[in-house]
Amino acid sequence: MSRHLRIVNAEDVPSFRRQPVDKTTLQEAGAIVDDVRERGADAVQEHSARLGDLAPGEPLIIDREELDEALESLDEARRDVLERTAERISHFARSQRASLLEMELPIPGGVAGHRVIAVERAGCYAPGGRFPLPSSVLMTALTAQAAGVRDVWVASPTPTVETLAAAAIADVDGVLQVGGAQAIAALAFGIEGVPACDAVVGPGNRWVTAAKQLISGFVRIDMLAGPSELVVFADESSDPTVVAADLLAQAEHDVDALPILVTTARVLIKEVDRELDRQLADLPTATTARAALENGFAVVVEDLNAGIEVCNRLAPEHLEVLTKNAAEVGTKMRNYGGLFVGQYAAEVLGDYGAGPNHTLPTGGTARSQSGLSVFDFLKVATWMRIDDVKGASPLVEDAVALGKMEGLKAHARSAALRRVDEE
Question: Which segments within 238-336 are labelled E, that is strand?
Fold first, then answer.
């Protein structure tokens, strides 16, 4: 039997604080982003042809009519799956939007508050390549729609008919059928036929991530995500067949994926290794999965509390809790992108549209960042109104005093002009 999961001591668990993209990729992506910003659609066309996304002369944009045709071409079974998944994602996102309320409260002489305003345009990236992801189209575009975004565009290289059908279901304005840094730059700065977007979101490879980092000073982005991660927290009650299957589901994503087992039961590691051997034997993506397993490891902990501490230290993209009393253990987890509680809450159910978004923070950034949601497309804009000038005197006098304290005399004078004479 092969040993797939090397054992790491709890105190030696490495940090997930990884750079989202290397310097070379960032530099090369920067040249593409700058070129697209300067030359627009011509640059996008040239880079896409050079990198194999488009044939010479092939159009950059797939319009709404073609998207609807793709949807109509699907057989009933595939269409029904996409539409059911879309409804679950939309329902969750709409409920999130409804949870964020506008607010106002009294201040001296008036009222202050905030409004919740959607950005006007959003660009949503969906990976193509070996594994096109229509689910990412639904996750990103439908979430933008639920937030109230007026114009929603998708970019995806060599889109399949399912990807185009998903875009139609998500009611997007069009699809830019290119990928990489040039697609991100086109969404951020606009090209002929595609408006400049206010927010650019979605998962992608290192070129996509590098470009998102470069445009983040111009538009809103969701996150800088790296290779996919899964931590399974299990004990002696856990089924090794399930644990192995879940680790492989993550490992088949990419050779850089990171599958990890944290367990209170050392014997479980041997049982999971045996299951990994068995399941890899007929797995079509075994080559990729085997390479990813070499990145991963297993951690044996003394008890549940020690395991919780390790999981919170790792702050993984995906965290499965497959222990006894999983619901209680789950409440003690603080740092994760997505949490999956109990043996039936498979991480892949989250990937494929249970409701919560599958675009999640990686590299330990879950300590401070959340997954994609309607909040990524919303601005919480504050406001104030003064109705009672005399009642606002405390605000005015404090502003005058603070302006003088900070040496900003124009601030003090501006505030002083709001003084009223006492009768």
Answer: 258-263, 297-300, 318-322
Structural domains of the chain ordered from first start? 7-18+226-356 (3.40.50.1980), 23-99+118-221 (3.40.50.1980), 388-423 (no CATH)
Q: What is the pLDDT of residue 423?
A: 47
Q: How confident is the model at residue 5 (pLDDT cuts 50, 70, 90)?
A: confident
Tokens of 40: 């627009």
Q: Cα separation of 380 and 256, whole Å?
A: 37
Distance separating alpha carbons of residues 199 and 178, to the nearest angstrom: 18
Task: Indicate the SS3 state at residue 280.
Answer: helix
The model's confidence at residue 3, banded by pLDDT at 50, 70 and 90, is: confident
- Assess whether 72 carries a catalytic annotation: no
Phi, psi of 359 (to 5 degrees): -90, 105
Identified catalytic residue from 229, 252, 275, 317 = 317
User: Where are the strands (E) in 191-267, listed by range?
Assistant: 199-201, 220-221, 229-234, 258-263
Q: Name beta bridge partners: 176.
A: 61, 155
Nearest to 245 by CA among 234, 255, 236: 234
Tokens of 247: 């680790």
Q: Considering the entire predicted model, what is its pTM?
A: 0.92
Across 229-255, b (16+ Cβ under 10 Å) vs e yields bbbbbbbeebebebbbbbbbbbbbbbb
End-to-end CA distance of the chain: 93
Task: Tell me which of 47, 253, 318, 358 is the catalytic residue.
Answer: 318
Our answer to whether residue 317 is catalytic in this structure is yes
Q: Please say if the pLDDT value at position 10 is more than 80.
A: yes
